Amino acid sequence: MRETKHLLFPGDFPALRRNRLTTLQVNLGYKCNQSCTHCHVNAGPNRSEMMDDATLDLIIKYISEHNVSLLDVTGGAPELHPRFRELVAEAGKANITVRDRCNLTVLFEPQQEDLAQFLADNHVEIVASLPCYTEENVNKQRGKGVFFLSIQALQQLNALGYAQDSALNLHLVFNPSGPVLPPSQVELEKQYKKHLAQDFNIQFNELFVITNMPIQRFGSSLLSSGHFESYMTTLRDSHQPNNLATVMCKDTVSIDWQGNVYDCDFNQMLEEPLHTKDKHSLHISDLFSTKLSDLPIKTGNHCYGCTAGQGSSCSGALN
Ligand code: SF4
Ligand code: SF4
């Protein structure tokens, strides 16, 4: 894989500083029941990197003692972590919304037969990647047979009340397959809703449209195809300064499976940790004694991916 990191730092993106922390995004490890070709963490069934007990205990302690409003859990397939359900239950006790980045097919894995019911019982918000509403495009990106398993999973979630009951949110995620900006989130959501309802009687709450970042596998493919410079020009030319106030790193930190702290998931993938004013990187164990508000954010040229056009974040468009 060809690296783009040296082309992103130091960049000329405007300086940013943190606001108060409201969202803790936690990667529980790289084990996954799928091995998607586009996976930005290269997750798969044979990956053994998983958050250890001591680090998970610190996550639980942190959310119990601090006033965060959202715990955003990622992987791999986070549900395959042996303590996933305990983490969800602890967040519930602390009145924190849990957002599960669910690949949908995990609901059909051995010993996960009751997972959908568990998620519903605990009011876990589900965010699921569905790159298209057609079988061909989904299977191409996520593997043979994934589309129909995803459809079955969405029907099961609807039957449990997801996207029917106001306490059970089910969101879908789209990102473009090539070096272009995503279409309007509002318009694409209408198309998804129409097709999924017509063809499969599926409902969902919102479609999150996310811009591809020029990093990891996508960045490598841009370099190999000779599109890196033109894609960066597209992002820069579409920069909307008003998006700077709402980029997700202002109020989120991203924690990797070893407990290291980053400004966002993308910086985690680039191995560029969050730094204190005296340039120290942080571990979850340091967060108890560190004030994050006003710390500088580690920005690079990839950040234009967050501010281009309608803007982009883990929750979709910014405007
Ligand atoms: S389901 Fe998600 S985490 Fe798993 S391999 Fe695919 S993209 Fe990666
Ligand atoms: S890439 Fe990360 S650091 Fe840069 S603007 Fe987006 S969220 Fe913030």
Brief sketch in words of this structure:
With 319 residues, the protein is of the alpha/beta class. It has one domain (5-307): TIM Barrel (Alpha-Beta Barrel), CATH 3.20.20.
Query: Mean pLDDT, rounded to whole units?
Result: 94
Per the CATH scheme, the topology name is TIM Barrel
| End-to-end gap | 33 Å
Summarize the helix and strand pattern as letters: HEHEHEHEHHEHEHHEEHHH
Number of domains as seen in the coordinates: 1
Helicity, in percent? 25-40%
Percent in strands: 5-15%
Residue runs with pLDDT of under 50 for 5 or more positions:
none
Per DSSP, the total helix count is 12
Structural class: alpha/beta
User: What's the CATH architecture name?
Assistant: Alpha-Beta Barrel
Instruction: Specify the CATH class.
Output: Alpha Beta
Main sheet, how many strands, which sense, barrel?
8 strands, mixed
Shape: globular
Radius of gyration from the alpha-carbon trace, in angstroms: 19 Å
Give the strand order of the largest sheet, numbering strands 1, 2, ... along the chain: 6-5-4-3-2-1-7-8
How many β-strands, per DSSP?
8
List the ions, cofactors and other small molecules found in this model: iron/sulfur cluster
